[in-house]
Amino acid sequence: MNRLEGKVAMVTGGGRGIGKGICEVLAREGASLVVADIDLANAEQTAADAREVGRKAIAVRCDVTSAESAAAAVEAAAQAFGRLDILVNNAGVVGLHVGGTLVDADDWDMCYEVNLKGIWQMSRAVVPHFRANGAGKIVNIASIAGRKGGAGLAHYSASKAGAISLTQSLATELGPLNINVNAVCPGLLWTDMWRQLEAMIGREPSDEVVDRRRVFEAFLAANCPLRREQTPEDIGHAVAFLASEDARNITGQALNVDGGIEMN
User: Fold this and answer.
1) For 203-219, what is each residue's pLDDT tens digit?
2) Would you put residue 99 in left (φ > 0), alpha (ψ -120 to 50) or beta?
3) What domain range includes position 69?
4) Exposed end of the chain (fewer CB within 10 Å): N or C?
5) What is the predicted pLDDT for the residue at 190?
6) Of 84, 136, 172, 109, nearest in space to 248 by CA
7) What is the pLDDT of residues 135-146, one digit of tens each?
8) For the chain, what is the domain count?
């Protein structure tokens, strides 16, 4: 549809998983891409894929927990393209441990630093550019875990609930500058993060892909009204909508893309 033709979008954590899917959809919608990731090799591959379909794209290494790194990534984008129109705060972690007493202070701090503080750091870095443009779009990737906490996921759920609340605060603050701020709350996706969650959700950790997939599909069948998994591309379509002028009067909202697992 090319709804984002002429726009420049930065996607944090864009090197793999949901971030890569978002980049692929934004490229199809016409956006030039700044793929920002702490793993530069992954970011470069995603950028190369975008260039193969005719889009301009660069990769930058970015640690969203560092104000200096965030500012440098945004400046690299401005230097490369002369402008920045869209920020997708996708970088996220679940911590090293899930499940009850396994969660420790390091896990808590990691989730806070990346999932919540990272959104604030990156948003703060792009606002001067959006102000100069007279407009801007920020889309934060939260989670349905931020809608309702669960056992063993206090650190992750709290950080994602904070991301939803921060979205609302930024939308209120930045609305007078013609900057829209929204969130997308993904449901259950077959990504690397599932491997960290399966032991808690499925109670049956295994190295066999077929077993992991069976636990995944059983959880979907029991909890998802549409009975189908969500994909990185599904999240990308929601992001593209919120980043487009089709959503010009939508701000401060959190959109669940989860097959109906959470309905709020």
Assistant:
1) 555 555 556 678 778 88
2) left
3) 8-188+231-257
4) C
5) 75
6) 136
7) 999 999 999 999
8) 1
Q: Which amino acid is at 137?
A: K
Q: Is 112 a catalytic residue?
A: no
Q: Tell the residue number behind the tokens 């996706």, with chain if given.
A: 189
Is residue 217 a part of any domain in this protein? no
Phi, psi angles (nearest 5°) of residue 89 = -85, 90
CATH of the domain at 82: 3.40.50.720
Report the pLDDT value the prediction gives residue 195, as an integer from 0 to 100: 57
Q: Which of 81, 130, 156, 216 is catalytic?
A: 156
Of 26, 51, 5, which is closest to residue 242 (Cα–Cα)?
Answer: 26
Parts of the chain with a pLDDT under 70: 99-100, 191-212
Which residue type occupies 110? M
Predicted local distance difference test score (pLDDT) of residue 219: 82
- Residue 193 domain flag: no
Residue 93 lies in a domain: yes
As a whole number, the mean pLDDT across the chain is 92
Query: Are 35 and 14 a contacting pair, CB within 8 Å?
Result: yes
Place of tokens 């002028």: 245
Contact 130, 136 (CB under 8 A): yes
CB 179 within 8 Å of CB 3: no
- The tokens describing 132, both together, are 């100069």
Query: How distant, in Å, are the alpha carbons of 74, 78, 163 from that of 122?
Result: 8, 14, 13
Contact 46, 261 (CB under 8 A): no
Helix (H, G, I), strand (E, B) or coil at 88: strand
pLDDT at 206: 53
* Residue 148: predicted pLDDT: 92
